[in-house]
Amino acid sequence: MSYALNEVEATAKRAARGAGYDWGLSEEAAKATRWLCAQGLDGAAVLAGLLEAGYAAELSAHVPQSLDGSWSAQAPLCPLATGAAISDCAAGLQDAPLSLGQVSQPAMILPFAAMAARQLDACVTVECEGFQAVTDGAALHCVGDLPDAAARLTIRAAGSLSNPYPTHTRAEPEEAAWAVLNRFAHKTYAPATEESRLLGAGAGLSDND
Amino acid sequence: METTAQTTISRRDPAQVMRLSRLGSLHQCRLSFMRVLTRRMARENWSFARPKFDIDGNGVGVAVYTAAGPARTYSLIAFAHDLPPEMRSDRVIATAWDATFTLFDGVPTDADIERLSKNVPYQEAGRVNEKSLSVSRANRSVRLWAHFADALSQGQQPDPAQVDAVGYLMRTTAVYGSGKLGAADREAIADRPELNAPFQAEMLSVYLTRAFVRDLVEHMARAKGGENAVPLAPETARRLGIGNSTGLGMAPYIVNHPVLFNNWIAAREEAIARVRSVETASAEEAACFRRMLRRSELSAARWHSEHPAQIEKLASLHKDLEALAAWAAADDLLNDHPWDRLIRWSETALGLEGQELAASLILEPYADLVDGLSDCMADANKDAFIIDGAMPVSQVRQLIEASFAWALDLDWAARENCARAWYVSEEKLEPRMGERFDEPIAAYEQPLAPARDAAAAHAALADWDGDEPVAAFLLRHPEHRHTVRRAQMSQVAPYGEIRSNTISDRVLPVDMLRAKLSFFGATHFDPRSDRWVRICMYAGAPYPEDLTAANADLWVYPEADQ
């Protein structure tokens, strides 16, 4: 089924929150998933894969232990928290490339590389073995296939974008991934009670007059 | 924001403007989205047609209304239903309605109508595609509809007193846009000049809906009365608006879109500052103000509410209108910054309803200073979302203090300060507000208490070296990421934060609803509880076939002979 990108964004935000991420990172997840879909990639599948890994329960184990030098942790890096940090530290990419240790769902790094590119007003290149992506912030071009996990990832303020993917205004996520997002999103909904039915939306007076 | 106009008087302080009690007293103005739309359609000489009206004697069928501008045509597809009374509910959780609508991008084919007829009548249970720009539904006002259909069918015109008491034949209970239910995203249409200002597709949908409702009641009267039936007198039709019943679902919008909401408020504040900076007014400008003040009195006289809080506010407004009239009669309104003097006087002499009415009214004589600001009300600043991680911790602290100094010392653990929690219900996926200490909802809380969250982030930031980049703080404290983002947004959106506690035991969500609806151009706010409000849209507006540059703008103010 075809979905509006706003539907993707809203569902992704609720899903990330339902999986246990804080609101700020859930907002990042939503924008990132939307951005991937706008490039014609299945952002919903990428996010679903990440949420099923369950990193949010112990996020501090999956974020870079230091922002100096190479970024790594004992466990695989969460691409949402790490991606947000890449965007936060975009200025540093002008001085030196950034190298990451093991990253789960590295496709989720790409939207954050794009945010860095927009801040730097320059192309950013993301590379791992057998894969290279270049983004100018708005558009993307990839060579090779992204694995579900990358042993190392390099991010540089470099590259040029001569042949970007056409951008998409609708998303057609794989149904199974979409169902996973909705399953996580459902965890953010409070079970209805009689009291909430009556009071929560503020009705009570007749609305048939 | 345009910077061509010279202002010697600065915009009002966000600390004054953004209190919820004041936001809950806002009135429509020249920048309201309905007026922006009708001005444009008249200026560009849009043409309107009704290529289809295929509705039977029971009021069941489909109609199409088209609005053609210089570059594109839009069509309202209206599905009319025969709804049993027991199924009629204005609650967003309803499952059937008297009429359902979609605003179609272009002119629909029969196949489009066939596809939409299997989806639009089911609203949330259906799907549309990017050819739909909005999806909405409406219910009849039972009292007024029956009276109109009966009277017209018998060759009589409806009783004006009943028209005044209700104001509309149908009220919409939701108008969904921007990607909802599969419709086109706002981003897909935002670069069209006619849809660039906020909510123009939704406002066009409601404008055409009003014409459909008038046609439908006349059709039903003819079906019932045959040759005895008469059409609705144009002056009565003109007084009818479209009602709208809005619940809590809309309240989070102004919190969730701080840059957009800022742009609305900032545009109006800039307009107010420009007019206050006018040194001398012409006789015609002063006369225009006095005419609109007089017509506002008529509008206020037709504004009814049974809600105790609104009854009190209306009493205050009536008193303020008398004081305003007396002030305007005693002053020539010509010299020595007349509008600034009026505003400064209003702040000492009037309640919030009167102050904000005065602020809206002084804009009326100054189309040239004000109307262009409607181009600044959309949110095109997508990068405001991106956090500047290099910003030092000390600067983030300062930004939080600028918006939330009033909240930092509040005891956020005290029950009265966090009595409420916003959540989304499993049942209908709609935002609701509940009692944190009485209901099991805290675990599901939505981030709609920016002041509380700002206080928490500010406390956490206090432990950090002020020179550290905030990126390092956020790596360790992802729970404050949304607050740091909002704090940085406040640099481009000084009017983006509500300066009141949105989870206190005294919060009135209807204030949030009114703030938003006033920018639509709504009038006659009628709260039905502290979290549900009815309004009227387009009352007094010319119908599509009568729209001209002469009547496209000031219709919101009733005329004495109407």
Which radius of gyration of chain A do the C-alpha atoms yield? 19 Å
**Lateral arrangement of strands in the main beta sheet of chain B:** 1-2-3-4-5-6-7-11-10
First and last CA, distance of chain B = 38 Å
Give the biggest beta sheet of chain B.
9 strands, mixed
**Rounded to an integer, what's the Rg of chain B over CA atoms?**
24 Å
Give the helices and strands of chain A as they follow along the chain. Answer: EHHHHEEHEEEEEEHEH
Distance between the termini of chain A: 39 Å
| Mean pLDDT rating of chain B | 94
- Unreliable stretches of chain B (pLDDT < 50, length at least 5) are none
Quaternary arrangement of the chains shown? heterodimer
- Strand order, biggest sheet of chain A? 2-8-4-5-6
Helices of chain A, by number, come to 7
Question: What descriptive keywords fit this protein?
Answer:
heterodimer, A: 209 residues, alpha+beta, 10 strands, 39% helix, B: 562 residues, nine-stranded mixed beta sheet, two-stranded antiparallel ribbon, 22 helices, 11 strands
